Amino acid sequence: MQKLTEGIEYQIDFHAGDNDFKLIVSLGNEFPNDKPLLKIIPIVVHPWVNHEGDITTAPGLLNFTLHSDLGRVVQAVIREFERNPPPITSEHGGNTVTSPSTSVKESEITSPGYLMNFPTSSNFSPPSQMIASSSMSLLQGNYFPELNKLTIKELKSLNESIDKQEDFILELTQPKEQNRLIDELILHVEDLADSNLSKQEQLEMLRKGIEYRIEEATDQTFKTEKLHNDYKNLCEKFSPKNIQEHLRLASRKADEDSEQLAEQFLNGEMDVDRFLSLYIRNRTKYQTRKIKEEKLSQQIDSLEKAGF
């Protein structure tokens, strides 16, 4: 790359076909907010290039933004010229165009038949935005060989009439095939919709069944929680420690009752026969419960020592 003016203008030399070219890149004061200016020397005939040699319709320039990569834009332009070497316009008079293998009149340069040789051309755009992308594809003769059968006059007529362009597109094999596939897809979607509607009653029954199952599962969950709480309470109530504590309290109460009976007898509040009957019964309860408590305490200590 050769710098013509630092930060403003650069020149890239490259070779395409049998010709040497210079690509001048000019950066304005508002760059990169404004797109750069690209100029090809010598002037060539190409859909991207106007009659003054300015490159105006390259895809990278048309979509150039603040975040675009200028280097890639320049490389894309050079690659296009290297892949499709453009003919050079005459420097004298400007009425003919010369290239290594062809010589055509200037009036033929702008015809669709001539531009058809440039697959990436973008200046053949009908007024209607609706068919702009389709007309771009029509320029690519490799994709639509039907264009090769038309004369220049027929191509000009096609280019100037939106109705003819639409009719031409509708008669192509590709749109017909696409329309057929779309129709088949619509029928498939309709069949699928009918099938789904026919299953609506079954789905409603299944939905109600699921709701019933959910209610049943919720009820069972509540019952399970209640049973679990009862189980925990019973476990605590009949745990060895709790039984030992109840035996200790019961034996102490029996001992206290025995002492109270003895005081009543000594105070003359109870005869001998009644005293002996009640006293022996309470002392028996006390001894029985005391023995059970002590035995259970030994068993608990043994289990704790064993790691239970």
Describe the structure in brief:
57% of the residues lie in helices and 11% in strands.
Could you describe the 3D structure shown?
The protein is an alpha+beta fold and about 300 residues long. It is built from 11 helices and 8 strands. It has a 5-stranded antiparallel β-sheet, with helices on one face. A 3-stranded antiparallel β-sheet has the order 6-7-8. A hairpin with a 2-residue loop joins strand 2 and strand 3 (about 20-25). The two termini are about 90 Å apart. Residues about 90-140 have low confidence and may be disordered.
Give the key terms:
308 residues; alpha+beta; three-stranded antiparallel sheet; 8 strands
Helix content: 55-70%
Average of the residue pLDDT scores:
79
Overall body shape = elongated
**How do the strands of the widest beta sheet line up side by side?**
1-2-3-4-5
Q: What is the gyration radius calculated from CA atoms?
A: 52 Å
Binned strand content = 5-15%
Uncertain segments are: 92-142
Question: How would you describe the oligomerization state of the chains in this entry?
Answer: single chain
How many E-type strands? 8
Distance between the termini: 88 Å
What series of H and E elements makes up the topology? EEEEEHHEEEHHHHHHHHH
Category by helix and strand content: alpha+beta
Main sheet specs: 5 strands, antiparallel
Instruction: Please give the count of helices.
Output: 11
